[in-house]
Amino acid sequence: LTFIFVTILFFVILTSLYFVFSSVREPIRYSTIKIGNFEVTFNDREENLGNIVNLTPLIPMSVEEGEKTESYKLKIVNTSARKQSFQLKLMNDVAMIQEDGCSDIQLPGQYIYYQIDAYSPQLLDGSKRSPIFYTGTLESGEIRFIEVRIWVSENLPKEYMNYHYHGKISVKTIETTNS
């Protein structure tokens, strides 16, 4: 009788554990936001949201190495009934800069490379506060997947090695005049 009771109890415990652990799923690893007539999905990266760019500590690398880094992945959907244009910008992540207390040691943009999809890598326009690094147009209902790689140039002067870079990828709707 004890053996039967223990066997039944063991079976109930194993069955319960199976149902508990089989119902646990991976968390969704993306963030979707609505920006004007676009629905933008950023694939999250480790503990960071998918649009957060943190190059701190700075690790200078060659173009060849930069092209092999993990990309930031975006999905942009035009949810409007007409053709719509957008821009991708790299903006300062003001909240992270304030939290880190590093506003006076932000790396200038002219030492930051970016690459869109498989196109040639480019240096950011260091003269702009929020440089635009991609402009596109989508037809109504069209979907575009974009991969962005961002890294620090191997030509970084030594005096900048202790600097920080905290940014975020932003999508901006451009008003179009044609339907």
Give your account of this protein's structure.
It contains 3 helices and 11 strands; from the N terminus they run H-E-E-E-E-H-E-E-H-E-E-E-E-E. With 179 residues, the protein is of the alpha+beta class. The strands form 2 sheets. Strands 1, 2, 4, 5, 7, 8 and 10 form a 7-stranded mixed beta sheet that branches. The chain has a 4-stranded antiparallel beta sheet with strand order 3-11-6-9, with helices on one face.
Strand content: 35-45%
Separation, N- and C-terminal Cα atoms: 80 Å
Helical content class: 10-25%
Structural class: alpha+beta
Basic shape: extended
Number of strands: 11
The major sheet is characterized as: 7 strands, mixed
Element order: H for helix, E for strand: HEEEEHEEHEEEEE
Q: Quick check: average pLDDT?
A: 87
How many H/I helices?
3
The unreliable regions are none
Radius of gyration: 23 Å
Summarize this, please?
This protein has 179 residues and is α+β, with helices and mostly antiparallel strands. It has helices at residues 2-22, 63-66, 94-100, and strands at 30-35, 38-43, 52-54, 60-61, 72-78, 84-92, 112-116, 122-123, 132-138, 143-153, 166-174.
Tags for this entry?
11 strands; 179 residues; extended; 4-stranded antiparallel sheet; 3 helices; 37% strand; 7-stranded mixed sheet; alpha+beta
What are the SSEs and their pairings?
Elements: H1 2-22, E1 30-35, E2 38-43, E3 52-54, E4 60-61, H2 63-66, E5 72-78, E6 84-92, H3 94-100, E7 112-116, E8 122-123, E9 132-138, E10 143-153, E11 166-174
